Amino acid sequence: MKTIKLGIGGMSCAGCARTVEQALASIPGVTKANVDVLARTASVAASDDVTEEALMASVRAAGYSARRLASQPHVREAEERKAAQSALLKTGGIGALLLAGWILGSVSSVPKTVSLAMVITALVLAAFPILWRAIKALFARKLDADVLVGIAVIAAASVGEFIAAGEVAFIMLLGAQLEEYTTRRARKSLGSLLSLVPATAHVRRPASVPQDACASPDKSVRAPLDDQNEMEQEIPAAEVRVGDIVVVRAGERIPVDGLVRQGTASVNQAPVTGESMPVEKSTGDEVFVGTLNESGALIIEATRVGEDTTLARIAQLVEAAQQNEAPIQRTLDRLAGWLVPVMLTLAALVFVFTHDIARAITVLIVACPCALILATPTAVMAAIARAARAGVLIKGGQFLEATARLHTIVFDKTGTLTYGEPEVADLRRFCDHSDAELVEMAAVAEKMSTHPVARAIMRKAQSLGLKTADPTSFEAHHGRGVVARRGEQRLVVGQKRWMSEQDIHLSESVDEHMDEHHGEGHTTVVVAHDGKVCGTICVADTVRASAKEAIGDLHELGIERIVMLTGDNRRVALDIAGKLGIDEVKAEVLPEQKAEQIESLKRSGRAGGVAMVGDGINDAPALAVADVGVAMGVSGTDVAHEAADIALMADDLSKIAFSVGLSRQALRVIKQGLLFALVYNVTMVTLASSGHLHMIGGAIAHQFSSVLVILNAMRLLRYR
Ligand code: ADP
Ligand code: MG
Q: Nearest residue CA, atom 7 of ligand 1?
């Protein structure tokens, strides 16, 4: 299996996308073909024996142009620009020819045949692509926009209206280019993310010719560094390999994902995480491609390059997401399929009743539902792109729709509302071991666990200078605690509630002491060995600075229920919820029950949906079950977090209210576009049928509506 990407040209309307998809899918070995009308690309999943040439040939046979896509963003952009320029030049030539023919036609000294020949040449050139596609569509037993326009042009020409026919074809051509220009500019303005990748990188590699490297004629060799065996070279960023040492100076963009080896700098990570404030980076920190080194110098070891970098994966996801249709879109596509035959009939009726062929032709021209078809995909594309720039990955149009309709948002506590990096705040001994022995015992038990409580205990042990041995056996009980053995000793660390299951009896004083901590919002675990309670460890997690404000914003947006879902003790949860202004708490929920809780919230009635916000690691089932699963802080780790529908690149809770607001705005824009297109189309068809609109006016009006709908959708790019 492989995925092939192609650039597609000549698609005048969204309906064309389906024709290309069908053409691609009909090739043996192709399992899936997806065409993005706006990006003018096709991505094809096919078995390995399918060649690019075969795919391109089938696209061409369907009446469109196809070309290879350069994987380098710079090259790709330049190619697109060149293709657009040459198309514009052709259109300009056709327009000039048409205009010249028209003017010469009214000059009496010029023979009529000359001017007519010019007009007809222009007409044939302009109409040829439209007619070609229309014929292909008819052969595929389909009626689409090209068929409408094609019939209109032929009808006009057949009654001798060559200039009008030429102008209509020309306006269609020009309009398609205007559409393409608008969407291309939009895609670029959102920083076609990949254009942030610098073109070159300064790499330190062992000099191949150590002695006379200085005298090397190669201009890219800058200067030998203090390390005699290494020299700095400027090479294309695409050629950096994993493990290379890259130098990034102040003001430069980082060319790879990597780890800082040396140096400190403040780095603006906005392109990847959406954070507006620069982040301090020093030795051992992770840095991302495309981010800007604002001050200082960094020496970085490349860990991911090319297509594997976080930014490239974000770009891939965004691109895939933009092709993920919103449900509203599918209904519309079907509607458009119906509209064309209906309009053909209408035009025929107009002709039958009025015997006015020009009128019938105008009806055909204005009837094409292009604006209607474009309204949703343009808005979805713009909204997803806007979100990506803020560090929010929305994985498809359907999730925009769902996010706009949320009435309940559920938050995981640990790692989501809190930082998830708790500190040991208090120790209490209930037996004759020392504090250090208590910590050491807990640390041995927790050594193999990745839970935040375990990490807090390990850090404490480290700070006390304790050496913790490996446990001889270890069992994690998710959402409860751990059981481990050290030689003959059986160690249990975990929740109070769970101790009875482990046959550990809690005395009243232990009970009281724990309740006290729980009331303060501090998670407290029991440490027991061989059935006896040895002590308790209280860990305090800090609530995220932005949490309270984020919850407040969601309330303001009118989200009805905000719920905290946690496996932690009820009193701890209530305390934190109180501080944050969360009205509902579901505590002491075992990990496997979290998804059930979401299900029951979903069943609780009302139209709309339930979102689950989690740190993504142990919340995966709940994220998957929710109407909208939001995973936090996924930059660097697993960008394409499988279970989540929305991924927040940074741990920034304010992005949830942003996503809700943006989604609602997007839905509004979609509805505006649809309503406008519908009203406009109906008005134009009425005007045309009643003879109040001329052919050329109709062509202009028709293209105008498409461009207006696109421009309206592009407003989303500037959301907030
Ligand atoms: P949350 O839902 O807040 O993410 P979990 O479901 O991971 O919490 O855990 C719930 C509770 O179980 C914790 O508050 C803690 O008391 C206990 N617990 C879970 N894992 C461990 C562990 N490895 N060591 C000690 N206690 C644990
Ligand atoms: Mg958690």
A: 479
| Angle CA 433–438–440, to nearest 5 | 125
Return the bridge partners of 248, or none: 298
DSSP, res 417:
I
pLDDT in tens, 116-172: 999 999 999 999 988 988 888 788 777 777 788 888 899 999 988 898 899 888 988
Tell me which ligand sits closest to the C-alpha of residue 518.
1
Active-site residue, selected from the candidate residues 244, 257, 412, 652: 412
pLDDT at position 73 is: 57
Q: Is the Cβ atom of 453 under 6 angstroms away from ligand 1? A: yes
**C-beta separation of 568 from 587 below 8 A:** yes
Atom 22 in ligand 1: residue holding the nearest Cα:
481
Is 412 part of the annotated catalytic residue set? Answer: yes
Residues 14-46: pLDDT tens digits?
A: 567 778 888 898 888 898 888 876 667 788 888
Q: Using the predicted structure, report yes or no on whether residue 536 has a pLDDT greater than 70.
A: yes
**Nearest-atom index, ligand 1, CA of 588:** 10
What Cα–Cα distance (Å) separates residue 492 from each residue in 429, 481, 703? 15, 7, 72
Residue 396 has pLDDT above 80, yes or no: yes
Whether residue 478 contacts residue 518, with contact meaning beta carbons closer than 8 Å, is answered with no
**DSSP label of 263:** -
The 10s digit of each residue's pLDDT in 257-272 is 999 999 999 999 887 8
Q: Count CB neighbours of 383 within 10 A.
A: 28
0.85 surpassed by pTM: no
Mutate to test the pocket of ligand 1, among 444, 451, 541 (most ligand atoms within 8 A of CB): 451
SS (H, E, C) 514-552: HHHHHHCCCEEEEEEECCEEEEEEEEECCECCCHHHHHH
CB of 615 within 6 A of ligand 1: the answer is no
Pairwise CA distance, residues 542 & 322, whole Å? 37
pLDDT band per the 50, 70, 90 thresholds, residue 210: very low
Backbone angles phi, psi at 200, to 5 degrees: -130, 165
Residue pLDDT, tens place only, 399-448:
999 999 999 999 999 889 998 889 999 999 988 889 999 999 999 999 99
636 alpha carbon – ligand 1 mean position (Å):
25
Instruction: Please give the distance, rounded to the nearest whole angstrom, from the Cα atom of residue 95 to the centre of ligand 2.
Output: 64
Please give the Cα distance from 536 to 511 (Å, whole number): 10
**Atom 13 of ligand 1, nearest CA residue:** 568
**Which pLDDT score, from 0 to 100, does residue 212 have?**
44
Q: Domains, the chain, ranges and CATH?
A: 2-69 (3.30.70.100), 78-191+316-382+665-718 (no CATH), 200-304 (2.70.150.10), 392-418+544-659 (3.40.50.1000), 420-543 (3.40.1110.10)
Q: Please enumerate in sequence order all residues whose Cβ is within 8 A of that of 624, keeping only pairs 6 or more positions apart, or say none.
A: 595, 643
Ligand 1 in reach of 536 Cβ (< 6 A): no
Residue from 480, 483, 497 whose mutation best tests the ligand 1 pocket (most atoms within 8 A of CB): 480
Q: What is the pLDDT of residues 86-112, one digit of tens each?
A: 888 999 999 999 999 989 988 888 888
The residue contributing the CA closest to ligand 1 atom 24 is: 481
Beta bridge partners of 203: 233, 246
Pair 123, 162: CB distance under 8 Å: yes
Angle at 591 between CA 589 and CA 596, to 5 degrees: 70
Separation of CA 453 and ligand 1 centre (Å): 7
Q: Which of 453, 541, 572, 613 to mutate to test the pocket of ligand 1 (most atoms within 8 A of CB)?
A: 453
In angstroms, rounded to a whole number, what is the distance separating the alpha carbons of residues 147 and 584? 58
Ligand 1 atom closest to Cα of residue 565: 2
Indicate whether residue 566 lines ligand 1 (CB < 6 A): yes
Neighbours of ion ligand 2 (CB under 5 A): 412, 414-415
Tell me how far apart the alpha carbons of residues 627 and 223 are, in angstroms, rounded to a whole number. 57
